[in-house]
Amino acid sequence: MPITLPSVSKPPYDWEVPHGWPLVGRREELEFVDRATNRPGTAGVVVAGAPGVGKTRLIRESLARTEISGRSTAWSQATRSGAGIPFGALAHLLPAGIAGAGRRNLLRIAADEIADLSPTGSLVLGIDDAHLLDDHSAALVHLLAETDRCTIVATLRSGEGVPDPITVLWKDELIERVELQPLSMEEVRALVAAALEPPVDARTMHQLWSVTRGNVLFLRELVLGGLESGRLEQVRGVWHWRGGFADVPRLSDVLDERLRSLGAEQRALLEVIATAEPIPVGVLEALDEARWLESAADSGLLDISGGRPSMVGISHPLYAEALRSSMMPTRRRTIYRALTDALLSDARPGDLLRVASWKLEIGDITDHDLFLDAAREALVRFDYDLAFRLATAAHDAGAGAGSLLIIAQSLDGQGLFERAEAVFAEAERSSPSETQRAAAATSRAFNLFWHLGRNLEARGVLDEARLAVTDATVGDELTAELGAYHVFGGDVQQGLALLEPLVARRTASGRALVLSAMTLTFALSISGQTRKARAVVDEILALARDVASAVPFGPSWLSGNNYVSLMIEGRLDEALKLAEAAYDESITQGATILVGPHTHFLGWLTLAQGRVRTSLDWLRRAVDALEEVDYQRHMSATLGDIARAEALLGHVAAAEEALEHAESERVPSFLMDESFIGLGRVWTAVARGEISRGAEVAIATAQRVREAEQRYFEAACLHDAARLGMAAIVSPRLQELAGSFDGVLIPAYAHHADALACNDPIRLMGVCKEFEEIGAMLFAAEAAAEASRIHRREGRKGSALVSASKARALADLCEGARTAALAHIDVDLPLTRREEEIASLAAGGLSNREIAERLVVSVRTVDNHLHSAYAKLGVSGRRELAPILLTSPSRSE
């Protein structure tokens, strides 16, 4: 029976590479495809992988490169609808009238027609979704691969049935096969950064990775759909995601298309699994749902573990979210009722919270103990809205004062501080035991101090509670809290007097020890006792992990104090590594309460290194994180640092705006932000050209933080005053402070101030080396620039140029920072172009004869130019040229 090909007009067989979405993370795979396409004896390559991993994009990129190299290409797209049409996938490449008497002749003629599409006889044929090829097209592709006139580059979906002629291609080693994996987290980060102008908020980036799991199709549709819907938006230059994911229009279309292929029973099963994943197979069997497991697994939408018990989940989080969001409320309630009894009979960790949430949804609130326990678990997970709803349900069911405390804590976590204060006070009054009253007093004082700014009231609440308790353990925990309010409220020595003895005796409860150590280690560090602070962290950290349920962020907070102490010592690189690790951990764990503080420290630390633009990037991210949750008032300090960074870049208006915002965020009880905002004011004044005003503000700020016993911050303010012309005034106090600080940073501040006060350029170059070794490149650059100014003023041209060259090289590492001191480094070399050229070659180690040969001039000419350069630069010989010329920018630039 003759085969009639459909009459299809033949479109051009070239295609356009999609624009706007870069190919990232596929370098090795692309090179593999390119090699397989061009390797003698190989008929091509097939790229297999799960839906959406980027197979099509990869081979299109390869074909584009192939065309650039001069070879001809053609493109075919196999589809399910075309799978029943003979040659349906390749019809557009064939003339309408080639049907012949027999199939084999037809295949040979068709193969010749396609191969002849290349005028050079070397066609590369791209085939997308080769597993959907009709039998005739599959046989034709196999025949083409057997010739030496056509190379096949195809994709297919892993786990799908593939026509035998295609399978034979790689089984008989006619073509190569590569399995394409999803992108890694780092590759997703690089792809999003390439598609969007960074920075992207770290939490948003982690969410994009978590929900897509490296699936390129999902990632692309999510980003593009987020941009179209407004869910992905820029706030102060940083990209943020707002809202859910599965219902983003572009992405939901992709997800719905896959889910529509499910039968009714399969979808019902997947809805149950999506509601409670991962779920034991035994629970599904108890619900009489497991009979559909095998057919649902064939869809590729399930993950079934082989452990004991065997667990079932949805293969991708976006499918699970799409299933959940598409369910009607009545369907959800039906599933909740069925799952509640099944899970309670064999509860695992985490089931309690889920079951309580489901009971809340279906209106079953009779078990107030269950709701109370679940509310506590929600608090530990920082889910304040759920904790509030569960605790309120427990209270309505008669749970009493314990539920009031959790209600107040969840209101506090949501930023509803005045409402929380009223409920805290009620919980404290109505608590039946002193332990419960102390817990209510502790939480109440926290809210009063950190959120409402009422320091004396907070201390009064704690003092009253301490006097009332008879239990020593409870008293120790109240002392730990009270010590924190003394430290952060401006009385560091009193805080140390309360906390040091408590930690030293080690007989307090684990919670009291951890709470005390969290404040004590910070207080010790800013007092100069950084080594002692780290020793306490080392002793308490294991205990903090053991009692993490009682102090959820204790381990991370203690680790954070470790990197603060390292920074104060001047070990900036070590501090940076610890800070980055803590930041990554907080993002991975979803601990939003910690993301802001860790991000702020990274901005603070990189600013200390002189990396001003990098710092500004971190600080802006910190603001975004702190807008979500700012549990301990980091926002005002962060904004103060933003003002300083903007000012150092010369952005006066932006600095002034940040200062205004910082002032609006302050609470009068918390005094640790004084130096951050004060130094923001200092450098904003300098950016306006008011250098003397900046110096005065630095000294005034130093006095205020000295009164609050913040000795590290006092040293930082005094050092800035020295940099702005007040060195002689502040040097004695800096010398005094340096003698009581561990490490090298504060002594370096003192050395800098003293060298400036003495106008000693030699010592300033020594200070430059100190700061360079510490990693504080802006301070190092300033010290060298100041040395250059003094040398130049005293007529030492060569020394001035050496110092200026060093300062310029260091300033180049500071990402555009502008300070008064750095104005001294822009000194042109007093040489002609030929003199500089010859002097540079001499500085690089060439002899006069070698220079003469290279420049095709006489040795005498070289001698004359070198002696002229020596005289102009104020040096005595060629060995003194290198520090000047080898770090100076080329005049030809």
Percentage of residues in DSSP E strands: 5-15%
Level of helix content?
55-70%
Main sheet characteristics: 5 strands, parallel
Radius of gyration over C-alpha positions, nearest whole angstrom: 35 Å
Cα(first) to Cα(last) distance is 77 Å
The overall strand count is: 10
Number of helices: 42
* Largest sheet, spatial ordering of strands: 2-3-4-1-5
Alpha-beta classification: mainly alpha
Q: What sort of overall outline do the alpha carbons produce when their principal axes are compared?
A: flat
**pLDDT < 50 runs, ≥5 residues:** 1-19, 886-893
Mean pLDDT: 84
Task: Describe the protein in words.
The chain is mainly alpha-helical and 893 residues long. It has 42 helices and 10 strands. The strands form 3 sheets. It has a 5-stranded parallel sheet, with helices on both faces. α18 runs parallel beside α20 (434-451) and α26 (554-569) packs antiparallel against α27 (572-589).
Quick summary of this structure?
With 893 residues, the chain is mostly helical. 64% of the residues lie in helices and 5% in strands.
Features:
mainly alpha, 5-stranded parallel sheet, 64% helix, 5% strand, disordered N terminus, 3-stranded antiparallel sheet, disordered C terminus, flat, 893 residues
Strand and helix layout:
Layout lengths: L26 H12 L5 E6 L5 H14 L3 E6 L25 H13 L7 E6 L6 H12 L3 E8 L6 H8 L4 E5 L4 H11 L6 H11 L3 H14 L2 E4 L2 E4 L7 H11 L4 H13 L2 E2 H6 L6 H5 L4 E3 L6 E4 L2 H10 L2 H16 L6 H12 L5 H13 L3 H13 L4 H13 L3 H14 L3 H18 L3 H14 L3 H17 L3 H14 L4 H17 L3 H17 L7 H16 L2 H18 L2 H18 L2 H17 L6 H14 L3 H14 L8 H14 L3 H17 L3 H28 L6 H13 L3 H14 L2 H17 L3 H15 L21 H11 L4 H8 L3 H15 L8 H4 L8
Parallel strand pairs: 1-4, 1-5, 2-3, 3-4
Antiparallel strand pairs: 6-7, 8-10, 9-10
